[in-house]
Amino acid sequence: MSVDEFDPAIERLFARAPAFADSAQFEAGVAAKLNKSSRFRTVALSVAGLVGGLIAVREVLNVDFNIGSSSASASAGGGATQGLSMAGVDAAQAVQSLLDRLGLAGLDLGTMGGMQMFWATAGVLVALLAAGVVKLSQEI
Amino acid sequence: MAKPLRELHDVELAALSAAGGRREFGELVRRHSPAVRGLLRRMGAQPALADDVAQDAFLLAFEKCAEFRGEGTFGAWIKRIAARIYLKRRSKDARYVAEVENDEVAPNVDSAGRMDLDEAMKGLTEPERLCVSLCHGAGLSHPEIAAAINLPLGTVKSHVKRGLDKLRARLQSEPVAHGSASHVG
């Protein structure tokens, strides 16, 4: 701004903020938009965490199976698969007993295979992990 | 014991907002929203759209609060953000350019016959109004304005000068406004 353009009176007029009757409404609007964007971020983070977690679990399993097959030890590979199935069955039993205690014994998880049960449990764990991360990100 | 929000400085509030403090940011909105809303209207935005831009400017400021280090005032910082958002939207959407009201014949004045700045701004052409408010309201330099609205620097300077001349003439032509200006100046 050149010297001849500087006008204290004009500057002062521009510096003076006008009064608005609906200021409270405007402030509430900003707060609402902030909450909305926060909710959107929570959902997006949850979905991203869930998808990423599932992909990570799948990749880990693939790596294990590849190692098992490349070591040319069929029994070791078979052992890994069997161990996974056993873990799935154990998880199914644990969940079933939990459901029994909650009075939801009618939900029979025994019909699910070991592999299905493993995936379901992994999914729940990943979801819990994602929820924890989201909660943490909101608190920080 | 923590100080009440109203006693905290803008820089403190901005730091707390950067850490996710919604209440602290709410206080900043309370303090600065009238100036931001006023600036956007002076730039030529229609009231509803001006408020929309102002709200988006505050949302962006909340995201970027950590970048505000108190080198200038928070008010100047948020006004620059709002001005840039408005200019961006204005270049894409004609709705953001308000029609200049031709009220030379019967300007709105208060009971004392005084014309305020907003009323006087209505006597400027749209480019003059934009350049003057960006320069004196948002604190942008002439080269910054030229870059922001894609006009030659010389043209921007002319718009600012002509706009200021018109403002002075309109404000000083009112007897009470003249008295008021001499009182504060």
UniProtKB/TrEMBL annotation, chain A:
Query: Know the name of this protein?
Result: Uncharacterized protein
Q: Which domain of life is it from?
A: Bacteria
Q: Which residues cross the membrane?
A: 43-61, 117-136
Which UniProt key words apply to this protein?
Membrane, Transmembrane, Transmembrane helix
Q: Is the keyword Transmembrane assigned to this protein?
A: yes
> What organism does the UniProt record list as the source?
Brevundimonas bullata
From TrEMBL, chain B:
Q: Which UniProt keywords apply?
A: DNA-binding, Sigma factor, Transcription, Transcription regulation
Does the keyword rRNA-binding belong to this entry? no
Is DNA-binding set as a keyword in this record? Answer: yes
Pfam families, alphabetically? Answer: Sigma70_r2, Sigma70_r4
GO terms, biological process: DNA-templated transcription initiation
Give all residue intervals belonging to the RNA polymerase sigma-70 region domain.
28-95, 120-169
Q: Which GO terms describe its molecular function?
A: DNA binding; sigma factor activity
Q: Which family does it belong to?
A: Belongs to the sigma-70 factor family. ECF subfamily.
**NCBIfam families, per this entry?**
sigma70-ECF
Q: What is this protein called?
A: RNA polymerase sigma factor
Species whose genome carries this gene: Brevundimonas bullata
